[in-house]
Every structure is written in C-alpha cells, then in structure tokens.
C-alpha cells in the first residue's frame, strides 16, 4: 500500500543542519584553524562523537560504541529490526566541514523529524570509525572491520598510525576500546533491514546539471597501485640526449597513455596519476628512478581492470624500448558495488514526490556503504558541493540541500518501513 508524502518544515531542518555543521567546525572539534583535522582516537574526534551522543540521547536513543569505536545509536532495543542511517565524522588530513560529517548530521536530523512528526520509525544511526584513512592510512576501516574485510594480524601489526607508527591495536586499547572483540562489530548490522547514507557528491555533476539530489544506484570500484621505472641517473648537462636512461620520460609516456586508455574504456572509467616521485629529484640530474601511482576506477570492474592491466604492460614495453625496466605493484583493490533496487526505487519515488530536480547516478568515490551493502540492502543520496571541491578547507555545501536529502530519505524509510511499526 502506498504511503503519503510526508510534509517537512525544510526551513527548520536547514537551520538545524547548518547549526550542527557550524558547531562541529569550531575549535573543540578540529586540531587546526586552517582546516578540519580530526582523526580516530584524537580528542577532537572524541568531542565530535560526544556532540552526537548528547543530541541523540535527548531524543531517547540508546547509544553504544562497537569494540573499536564506531558510534551506534538506536531507538529500539537491540534485537528488534531497525533502518540504518549515517556516515562518518572523521576528516581528511586537510579536510572541510561537510565530507562525511554532513551525512551524520542529516541522519541526526532524520531522527529529530521522526520524533517531531510522531512517525515511530525504528532507526539506527551509525557514525563509522576512520573512513578517510587519515589516522591509519586505511580507507573505510571501521566499516571494513564491521564487514569482516580485515584480518586480526592487520589490526595488530599491519595497520600503523600515520603520525607515530604505532599499531591500530595499540591505539584502540589506549583509547579505551577492546580490539580483541573486533569481530563482534558485525553484530551492528544484524538488525538492519535497510541502510541509506547521505554524502556530498565530491564532483560537479549535480551542480553542472542543476540537480539538487543524486540518487546513487552503484559505487565504483577501484585499483590503487604503483609503477616504478628503473633507469640511470646522470648529470643533466654533461650527458648527451642520446645516451640517457631517463626514467621520467617513461613515466610521462605512461601518464598520457593512461588518459587514452581510460577514455577508450568508457563505462564511467577514470584514471589518475596523483603521486609522482623522481630520484634523485635534483634540477641538474637525469632521473634514475620514477615512481608514480595509479588510481583507476569505475562501475564496470572488467573495464577498469583492463585499463590497469594494459597500462602495466605499456609501462614495461615503454621502459624496455628505452633500455630500462618497469615494475607494477598493486596496493589495494575494491570491486564495484551495485546498490539495492528496492531502496533506490523508494528514494527515487520520494525524490519525485519532493518536486525538486534529481538524477540517478553512480558514485565515483568510495564510501562506507560499499562495506555494508554486502550484508544489508543499501543506497546513497548525494547533495551538491560547490565546484565539486572536497577534501579541502574550501569545501562548501548548502544545508538546504542536506535538509531536502533528509526529507527524501525520511519518506523513503517511511515507505520501506510500512508494516514494521
């Protein structure tokens, strides 16, 4: 049976969301006045969790933290079915106010609206630990722990803090958690019959197409890897051009080849070289070694994997042609994730009912929802960010768009929850 479209005071939601974001940009919630900098197990991160805890407890939510520090709050006893909403509130190492945090704030607003409108929806808010990888160099760490996509050896020894080199395990224990029970984190997902995460888009599609909402039906997978080219370092003035083994030239050829391969692959495939290191990195020396990173992504795994394979083969051939060698090493890979047709459909219907412009789209960036979707029917909602800027102090989003996103999510959850109350 169809449910009626809920009427929400968007202006009031906008004001509250804006207030939350502004508060969480203050000095108690970031270690720097130049950017948002809050990483797992830091005082600023603890203060941020405590802010959400106070707001949720005022709504009557029971809250707890899983064995490694992911925040969970729910308005039903454990064991009863609930619908999940949330995101993460840790930041990039030079972050802005909206990435991740806006999703938790929007989830909090859904909890407020549920109470104000007397809907009685069974809800569970989750703020995942360490999504950005800023503390331990591991993206989606809290949700990967919850999904069982890590090993105990990695948690004990493999994952090391970026700032002091100590293990994740040691930091978690020092913060008062019990990482020895990390596998119990999976229980957070046991009662969920659905999950929606709101996030800024981190691109320009919504802005450039003048849409206020993106209903996300898939999340791109990716390969992160490195290519290292071995040549010979010589004096930049004394070595004739025909006698050089310049590793930098092979790197340059590969960067241009990556662009051509990604464009030819289509299917939403993108490829980026974000790191480039030349050795000895002197103005008057021919580079003897060049290392560059590869970030190749897309919603079609065969397409982006093919680009990566072809680029690795090209690098070897380009190096050999110039009398050098090249080697390829994969760092990490994630498969793309198709999101739940039922959740996406409910969001699309709610977006249509809002009367605001929206579009169905895939996410090119990774999100915690990737980890959850294997266990729980899941989807995402995107809101625009100005000029697509994210992971930057210049990041900007409109709280009014987040309020609209919260309204659409609330309507979708209301539809999906018919018969559970």
CATH class term of the largest domain: Alpha Beta
Number of helices: 12
Compute the CA-based radius of gyration.
23 Å
CATH architecture of the largest domain: 3-Layer(aba) Sandwich
| Mean of all residue-level pLDDT scores | 96
Proportion of residues in extended strands: 15-25%
Structural class: alpha/beta
Distance between the termini: 15 Å
**CATH superfamily (homologous) name of the largest domain:** Zn peptidases
In words, what does this structure look like?
The protein has 421 residues and is of the alpha/beta class. The chain has two domains: 10-219 and 337-416, 3-Layer(aba) Sandwich (Aminopeptidase), CATH 3.40.630.10; 221-334, Alpha-Beta Plaits. The chain is 34% helix and 21% strand. The chain has twelve helices and 14 strands. The chain has helices at 10-23, 43-57, 101-116, 141-146, 152-158, 168-174, 205-208, 247-265, 301-321, 341-354, 369-372, 399-416; strands spanning 62-65, 71-74, 82-88, 123-128, 192-200, 213-219, 221-230, 270-272, 276-279, 289-298, 325-334, 337-338, 358-363, 378-383. Strands 1, 2, 3, 4, 5, 6, 12, 13 and 14 form a nine-stranded mixed sheet that branches. Strands 7, 8, 9, 10 and 11 form a five-stranded antiparallel sheet that branches. Helix 1 crosses helix 3 (101-116), helix 1 (10-23) packs across helix 12 (399-416) and helix 3 (101-116) packs across helix 12. The protein is globular. The two termini are 15 Å apart. The model has no long low-confidence stretch (mean pLDDT 96).
